[in-house]
Amino acid sequence: MGSHRQIEKAAAAWLVRRDREEWNGAADAEFQAWLSASTAHRLAFIRLQAAWQQAGRLKALAAGMTNSGAPLSGDQLGMLKSAKPVPRLPRHEDLRESEARDTERFRMPARRVLGMSAAAACLAAAVVGWFAWPHQGTAYRTPIGGIAAISMKDGSTVTLNTNSDIRVALSETERRVDLEQGEAFFEVAKDPHRPFIVRIGDQRVIAVGTKFSVRRESNHVRVIVTEGRVRVERSEPQHPAEIALVSAGGVAVAGVAGVLVQDKSLSDAEERLSWREGIVVFRETLLSDAVAEFNRYNTRQIFIEDSALGSMRIGGHFRTRNAEGFVRLLADAFPIRVEEDESRIVLHHQ
Length: 350
Known about the structure:
It is a single chain. The protein has helices at about 5-20, 25-35, 40-55, 75-80, 90-95, 265-270, 285-295, 305-310, 325-335, and strands at about 115, 120-125, 130, 140, 150, 155-160, 165-170, 175-185, 195-200, 205, 210-215, 220-225, 230-235, 245, 250-255, 260-265, 280-285, 300-305, 315-320, 335-340, 345-350. It starts with a helix and ends with a strand. It has three domains: about 5-80, no CATH class; about 90-270, Jelly Rolls (Sandwich); about 280-350, Phage tail protein beta-alpha-beta fold. By secondary structure, the chain is an alpha+beta fold. α1 (about 5-20) crosses α3 (about 40-55) and α4 (about 75-80) packs antiparallel against α9 (about 325-335).
């Protein structure tokens, strides 16, 4: 499927080619084949297309692409055009630049950086706070709606999702990350002599070299693996039944009753991690669950006034920070009346 950077470059190349070259049936067939090859391809193309349209860098494109490859509806295209560009993730080096200027307070001020993705889209940098806890490792935190990529000294990379908090401690025998809250995606550098351990309360996820995400919720932990294999266990397992191995494509949910592992396709696992692209994907999802997901990324919260609305099921690709566009689309497609002010959005049955 290629790396994230390679996919971004390919998506950008298709955008330029569709805009500047003579477009014929053979080129379109090749483009459709590329889109169909991977969910990551489709997400990257839609994201860059929206960013280019926002910046006025392309002529209006005839149509976008849905998950099935069919043209987007007018409502969906309108939603993409109103979407904000996805920010470039600040790297660990970006965070370190301010450390020397602010060591007394152990906190880095918020900052914005302008970056270029595949010479195609200018993306505003996400804002992230940084501070150090002496003798307890280094802590990183993202605000609501923020996403940040952090490069660790061992060569691993951590991508923090919205409103997330981790603490990193490296030693000669292990690499440890405590996930205090939120969600993180880990790309672990191989080091057989130092296992990579993510601790979440009384649960821990152990890897040597792999790619996986961990999401901490009120009563369980969700783990998604996209490469390699990880071990999910209690911090002090009492018997082997409390240990579960999760391979690429697998999704594990760990709670007080144990660990449940589901084997999914790799494309499904990647789709569940589309938040890294600033997108959430719903498939026959309860509206109540979709609203809860949007509320993770926005300070202006959505409320469902009528509980019957929460049982409706919806599907589609939506930008995490475009709650207003999501609500407008709901109101157009369903018998929903929207009431909103500066602090909240309320959904009523119409």
